[in-house]
Structure formats: C-alpha cells, structure tokens
Amino acid sequence: MTDLLFAATPTPVLPGLAAGYPVGRIFCVGRNYAAHAAEMGIAVDREKPFYFTKSATATVLSGETKPYPPGTTNYHYEMELVVAIGAPAFKVSVNDAMSAVIAYGCGLDMTRRDLQLSERAHQRPWDLGKDVENSAVFGPLSPVEALGEIGPQRIWLTLNGEVKQDATLSELIWSVPEIISHLSGFYHLRPGDLIMTGTPAGVGPVLPGDRLEGGIDGLEPLSLSIGPAD
Ligand code: MN
Fold this sequence. Notes:
By secondary structure, the chain is an alpha+beta fold. 13% of the residues lie in helices and 33% in strands. The chain has a single domain (13-227), classed as Fumarylacetoacetase-like, C-terminal domain (Fumarylacetoacetate hydrolase, domain 2, Alpha-Beta Complex). It has helices at 34-39, 113-121, 127-130, 144-147, 176-183, and strands spanning 13-14, 21-22, 26-29, 51-54, 59-61, 65-68, 75-77, 79-85, 101-109, 111-112, 136-138, 142-143, 154-159, 162-168, 194-196, 204-205, 211-216, 222-229.
C-alpha cells in the first residue's frame, strides 16, 4: 500500500435507508418541466434530454448552512426530485430501467444563474454556473415504495416561508425510466449515481441569511440556510 501525499477527499454519504448511501456521480437533467423551460426563455426539446454534472464533493446534507458562493450576484435555488441508483444499468430499456432505482429523495440544484446564462450565451460549458461548491443539497433518501408511482405528488419550495415553487411530478417532461434508459446509453450507471431530474418553474435568487425548505409528497423534506458571502 502506497502512502498518500494527503488525505483522500471523503465520500459524501446520504442518510435515510437501512445503511448510508455513498455518493458517486451526480447527473442533472436540464429543462425537464415546460414552465421552467419557458421562464428560462427556451422552447421545450422533446427530441432528447440533456445533462450536466456536479462533483460529488459539492454534496451538502439537508439542514446545513453554507456560505453564499463567490463569483456570482445571482445565486438561484432549483428544487428537484432525486433518483438514487442502486443497481448497475447499461443500455437498459425504458421498461427495465426502474429496476436500477433503489430510492428517491429531495434535492436542491443551486446555481450561479448569471454565469450559467453568460456561458450559455457564449456556447460554453456550464461548469462555473452549475458545478458550484456546496450546490448539491440532498434530503434523506426514501425507498422507492415511499413515493409510489410518479404522478400527482406535489413538489414545492419555500424561501423564508414563502412558496416559490409549486408543481406536481406529473409535469416532468422526461419520465424517470426514460431518463435512466437514455443516460444508460452513455454511462455505465452504478450504485452511488444520483440523478437530479430537473426543476419546476419559479426559480429565483437567494441572499445571505435566507432559508430554503422544500419537499415532495411521500419523501423526507430538505432545508438549506445561506450564510454570509464566502
Ligand atoms: Mn436543475
């Protein structure tokens, strides 16, 4: 065994199941609710889904306070349904895709909106806008049975107690099995992979001192407090 020059970065672990869920990769679906695509000024693309990723090290557990990040003056919340992969999936059909899912959770895809939009305008990657430190916030996971068949469940977010996002999962453009089937054509999905499935309309900015709370019917809620600027 070779000594390490420095301590390896710890793997984030999500609570909620019989044992901890170590986070591997974080895939995020873009524009998966029509009303949100519209508020972003983009027509819905039903041809195929698209993705960006966040580093596992961006993981934050619900209930924490994290600083307002550097490099932005327009830091946004995006409340999302999170799918936790619990079995390998590669080139799976839509019909077989759900056997790869072990759990669901609530997630926040925190975003430097100003940088995402300027990168988008220049046809550049979104990393500075999306792969933000402390920007992948997860509530405790729940087994798939807790959510049941996806459809009428309400997904909501409040900012300092005021409802900002309020939709139902039936508004998802790409369904969970469609996303898994498509994504598994490009990646060997494996246990530890999380998929943030996109946000409903109503995204907006936060400021230091703000508190976000979000939930999805049947799942454990989440919260995040925004600390002073980093
Ligand atoms: Mn998002």
